[in-house]
Amino acid sequence: MKFCSECAHPVELAIPAGDNRPRYVCANCSTIHYQNPKMVIGSIPVWEREGELQVLLCRRAIEPRYGFWTLPAGFMENNETTADAAARETQEEAGANIELGKLFTLLNVSHVHQVHMFYLATLRDLDFSPGEESLDVKMFREAEIPWDELAFPTIRKTLELFFADRRKVREGGSYGFHEHDITRPMRPITDS
User: Fold this and answer.
1) Domain 38-181: what homologous superfamily?
2) Do residues 189 and 179 touch, judged by C-beta distance below 8 A?
3) What is the pTM of this model?
4) Hey, is 119 helix, strand or coil?
């Protein structure tokens, strides 16, 4: 950050009185500019018929991780709930109409200043299509998931937890709530 959003004067990094960490502070109007983690919200849209379960994934049409597969998710907007954000992102990225379930994962991704949250979701129908940010949208059984082509560690972790809980559900258990810290950066893209 270089300029104050209140008065357009340059800002400087300083520890404000009563605070314990550096913040961008405007020397002209004294506005303190707090920078906080961003919320990435999405869903795990599933379709199940006759005991066969499939998950809807989107192939990214944007950077970062162009061409890699992801669950439908994106940044939460102001004036919406996390549930609203999950439904909106699923509609925008996959054109999918869902019935939203409970919150399933909360993943802290502190090295990129983000918190990712994914809701369980059931597809209401199979009428879906790629949105502006997706190259493709496709249903996958667990054995078909392109594990080596998943965009982010949060997607892999959420899917691993989902399928582990799915096995418990088949044995009479239920889906749990999972909180996890992602401490490793994603692997670099290489030509080899």
Assistant:
1) Nucleoside Triphosphate Pyrophosphohydrolase (3.90.79.10)
2) no
3) 0.88
4) strand
